[in-house]
Every structure is written in structure tokens, then in C-alpha cells.
Write a structure and sequence with these properties.
With about 300 residues, the chain is an alpha/beta fold. The protein has two domains: about 80 residues, Rossmann fold (3-Layer(aba) Sandwich); about 130 residues, Rossmann fold, CATH 3.40.50.720. Helices cover about 40% and strands about 15% of the residues. Strand 2, helix 2 and strand 3 form a beta-alpha-beta unit. The two termini are about 15 Å apart. The mean pLDDT is about 95. The chain binds NADP nicotinamide-adenine-dinucleotide phosphate. The site of NADP nicotinamide-adenine-dinucleotide phosphate (NAP) has 25 residues, from loops.
């Protein structure tokens, strides 16, 4: 049987790093979390973010705006938070109402408070291999490989999906010239020809397309590592709903060396990365010349599972 890569174990290790940094430097990281409207799925996620703060010695302040507040109102609040020294990080819950342009909002956030790391400056920093905030989901994949000692160096690594949130930043992170990167990366999308053939050549296959059970056993290589970013709601035969990934777990797991489950895999790690970004922002604001990865490396080496 393959190794099941546990999102919970990784999330706990990242949280331990955040908690250690906060305590060691007497920080009080403060996040401003803005939700526009009251979409139930968003509210559920927002609540889990709020619940995590006290466990790590952080503060999370929720500001809920009416769904019809308009783009300018949101921009005014962001601009004020950008210059407020008591706010170390800003997170805007997505999706936003249709009359608000995500790209305008992303670019309005101070890049040094940009917890979702969607500002073009942070995406550019990733490209240039500079110290940056990392977008939560690509970082969750990166830390999964690192925690389990799966070094993609020189490995044929195929990413399904080229979104700005997942596929593109992740591809650039895996191209970094450093440990747990140095991969040979192929990025596929809806226009890719011979997709199954490309997937079969992958030592590491990462799927982020949002299509339930899309990757079948005949698309994966024996002994490959399968990372599933997809979270798809399906209706089961009995009418109840469930969440599955992009990778058909039951069919593909027997061929894999390692695989992430859905739920309980990558999605389980993203809140921890959000707080790691908040701690990073707080270190910057305090002028402390330490990187969060110094702590991650120590904690991961204590817990690291080598495959
Ligand atoms: N685990 C987490 O915390 C987390 C976070 C974010 C997203 N997600 C999940 O990850 C998935 C992707 O999210 P996203 O925001 O990146 O989605 P997105 O913006 O919709 O992008 C999907 C990408 O997949 C490609 N694609 C779609 N169908 C395809 C197919 N049949 N063959 C090949 N490529 C295909 C699209 O190609 P084109 O570019 O050609 O259209 C696009 O590049 C979703 O299930 C989402 O729920 C999970």
C-alpha cells in the first residue's frame, strides 16, 4: 500500500513553527480578515481561521461587509489597514461578489501584508526566487513534499492546472534552485494534447483542475507520488454529498508510492500556511532578521517522515 501523506501531521508541524516563533520573539501577530457577504462555505472557512488564532498566540479580527458594499468601500478599508501598524496581515475571503474585481483588490493590498500572496509583487518575488509570502495552496504542496522527504530534484513533475492561485506559482516554486525544488516541471491545462501520456511519465503528479476523480489508474506511473489539490463536491447515489479530489483515490492508490487523501490532504494545510505568512509579516514589521523556514527546517527534521 502507498504512504498516505497526512495533511494533519504537516499542519501541526507548521503550526508548531508559528507558535515557536511567536513565543520566542514575543510577537502578537494581528490579522485583519475581511468577508464580503455571508456565503455559508466562506463563513465555515472564516470560522476555522478565527478558531486557529489563539492556539498560535495570534489575533484574527473579522470584518464582515454587506454583499452590496461595493468595491470602493472594500478598497478604502484595505488602504487604511495597509498603513495601520497594528495590522500585520490582511486576508480577503474569496469569492467576492461579482461587482468587485479580484485583480483590483489583490493589487491594493500592501505586498508586505499580503497573506494570500496574490499581489503581483509577491508572485514576482516567487519568480525571482526572493523571500516572499507564498500562496497558501502551492506552499501546502511544497511543505508536503518537504515534510515527507520527497525531494523533487531532477524528477519529472507534472502539474495539472495553470491557475494564478495554484498551478503557475507552484510550477515556479518547484523550479527554484534549492532543496525540495530543482524539479523538471511540465504544466498541463485544458488545451494540452496527450495529457494521459504526459501524466504517465510523471514521477510526481500534482492535480489542481477541479474535476472529480479525473485522474484514473491508466494515467499514473507505478511508484509515482500523487498530490491532489482538487476539492470537488459530489452527490452520492443516496443523495448525500461528499468531497473528492481530482485523482480517483481508490483506483490510483495501489499504483502509487505515496498519495494525499481528499479530504485530509492539501486542503488541511492551507490555514497553517496562512498563519505562517502572518508570522512572517509580523517578523518583517518587527524588523527581526529571521526566516520562518529556519524554524520549519528544525521542526520538520524532528518529525520528518522519510519515504
Ligand atoms: N486544497 C486547497 O486548499 C485548494 C485551494 C485552491 C483550490 N483548490 C481546488 O483546486 C482545484 C483547482 O482550483 P483553481 O482555483 O486552480 O481552479 P481554476 O482557476 O478553475 O483552474 C483550473 C485549471 O485546470 C485546468 N483544467 C480544467 N479542466 C481540465 C482538464 N480536463 N484537463 C486539463 N486541465 C484542465 C484549467 O485549464 P485552462 O487554463 O485551460 O482553463 C485551469 O488551468 C479546485 O478543485 C479547487 O477547489 C483547493
Amino acid at each position: 500500500m502507498p504512504t498516505e501523506l497526512s495533511g494533519k501531521a504537516i499542519a501541526l508541524a507548521i503550526n508548531k513553527a508559528s507558535k515557536t516563533i511567536v513565543a520566542e520573539h514575543s510577537l502578537r501577530p494581528h490579522m485583519l480578515l475581511i468577508q464580503v457577504g455571508e456565503d455559508p462555505a466562506s463563513s465555515y472557512y472564516v470560522q476555522s481561521i478565527l478558531n486557529t488564532a489563539p492556539k498560535l498566540g495570534c489575533e484574527a479580527e473579522l470584518l464582515t461587509l454587506a454583499a452590496d458594499c461595493g468595491q470602493q468601500k472594500l478598497l478604502d478599508i484595505i488602504l487604511e489597514a495597509n498603513s495601520n501598524p497594528d495590522v500585520h496581515g490582511i486576508m480577503i475571503q474569496k469569492p467576492l461578489p461579482g461587482d468587485i474585481d479580484d485583480s483590483v483588490i489583490n493589487i491594493s493590498i500592501n505586498p508586505d501584508k499580503d497573506l494570500d500572496a496574490l499581489h503581483p509583487v509577491n508572485l514576482g518575488r516567487i519568480l525571482m526566487e526572493n523571500e516572499a509570502f507564498l500562496p497558501c495552496t502551492p506552499a501546502a504542496v511544497f511543505y508536503t513534499l518537504k515534510y515527507y522527504g520527497i525531494d523533487p530534484q531532477g524528477k519529472n513533475t507534472v502539474i495539472l492546472g495553470r491557475s494564478n492561485v495554484v498551478g503557475k506559482p507552484l510550477a515556479n516554486m518547484l523550479l527554484w534552485k534549492r532543496p525540495y525544488a530543482n524539479a523538471t516541471v511540465t504544466v498541463c491545462h485544458s488545451r494540452t494534447a496527450k495529457l494521459a501520456e504526459i501524466c504517465r511519465k510523471a514521477d510526481i503528479l500534482i492535480s489542481a483542475i477541479g474535476s472529480p476523480n479525473f485522474v484514473k489508474a491508466d494515467m499514473v506511473a507505478e511508484g509515482s507520488v500523487l498530490i491532489d489539490v482538487g476539492i470537488n463536491e459530489i452527490t452520492k447515489a443516496d443523495g448525500s454529498s461528499a468531497y473528492v479530489g481530482d485523482i480517483d483515490f481508490a483506483a490510483c492508490a495501489p499504483k502509487a508510492a505515496a498519495i494525499t487523501p481528499v479530504p485530509g490532504g492539501i486542503g488541511r494545510i492551507t490555514t497553517s500556511v496562512l498563519y505562517l505568512n502572518l508570522v512572517k509579516a509580523s517578523l518583517i514589521a518587527a524588523g527581526i532578521n529571521k526566516t520562518v523556514d529556519e524554524y520549519i527546517d528544525i521542526i520538520f527534521s524532528e518529525n520528518q517522515k522519510k519515504l
